Amino acid sequence: KQPDTLLQIIDEYGRMFIYYQSAIDEIETKLKIIDRELSNPGTIGRKNVIHQIQTRVKSLESIVKKLERKDLQFSREIVEKELSDVAGIRMICSYIDDIYAVLDSLAAQSDVTVLEIKDYIKNPKPSGYRSLHVILEIPVFFFKETKRIKVELQIRTIAMDFWASLEHGLRYKLETDDPDLSRRLEQTATTISNLENEMLMIRSKIEAQIE
Ligand code: 0O2
């Protein structure tokens, strides 16, 4: 069913917002619980396993633009079927091994379904972009109904986030494709990746000395 007026679209988005924000809240709580346990000295006891969690519900404008690119019109059914990144969580970890450890723990929870994983860490994008993108689905219990809702979880390290944030800003400023600048940006991603691997190796040595 297509909503016909602008007011109906805004009303529909308002209802969708409640669903998607609630799904974000559920996953964010799960991540905070995992982090609390991991940061306990009795377990691995390392501060800042999850450095930061950022969340957002995609704006109505971004949803409409994305649907237009796919030649689709806005409706709740179409958004639910076609878009998996309306609810977005970005989790920034300190080290690469934390990324996979937290994801494994989350994926093992009985109410969490992993629908898709795109591993741009093992296979970086040509731009140099590295991150782990995961589409999850969870049931959310509302006043009268239970809905299964998709959430896109982007997991990256502090180093990957540093690169992605700066590159994102620069790419918008680049009006035409400049192969030399693109190559140099890609090289910075490699340098940062080498740097964070070195930090990980130093951490492992220190941990081995403590044990
Ligand atoms: P924004 O403004 O960050 O939200 P789609 O999601 O349909 O567009 P796809 O292939 O499913 O396409 O998504 P993909 O490429 O797996 O992930 C898209 C998101 O990853 C982007 O969101 C960015 O946040 C991030 N991303 C992907 N490639 C790059 C890159 O080269 N550099 C940076 N900095 N970020 C990247 P949006 O919606 O494009 O943008």
Task: Provide an overview of this structure.
The protein has 211 residues and is of the alpha+beta class. The chain has one domain (6-163): Beta Polymerase, domain 2, CATH 3.30.460.10. 52% of the residues lie in helices and 21% in strands. The protein is built from six helices and five strands. The chain has helices at residues 6-38, 60-69, 76-82, 96-107, 158-173, 179-210; strands at 50-57, 87-93, 113-119, 132-141, 146-157. Strands 1-2-5-4-3 form a five-stranded mixed sheet. The protein is flat and about 65 Å long. It starts with 5 loop residues before the first helix and ends with a helix. The model has no long low-confidence stretch (mean pLDDT 93). It binds ligand 0O2. Ligand 0O2 is lined by residues 85, 118, 125, 127, 129, 133, 164, 167-168.
What does this entry show, briefly?
The chain has 211 residues and is α+β, with helices and mostly antiparallel strands. The chain has six helices and five strands.
CATH uppermost class: Alpha Beta
Number of strands: 5
Q: Please trace the helix and strand order, writing H or E for each element.
A: HEHHEHEEEHH
Number of domains: 1
- The second-level CATH architecture is 2-Layer Sandwich
Calculate the terminal CA-CA distance, rounded to whole Å. Answer: 62 Å
* CATH homologous superfamily identity: Beta Polymerase, domain 2
Mean pLDDT: 93
Query: Largest sheet, if any?
Result: 5 strands, mixed
CA radius of gyration is 20 Å
The CATH topology comes to Beta Polymerase, domain 2
Q: Which hetero ligands occur in this complex?
A: ligand 0O2
Share of β-strand residues: 15-25%
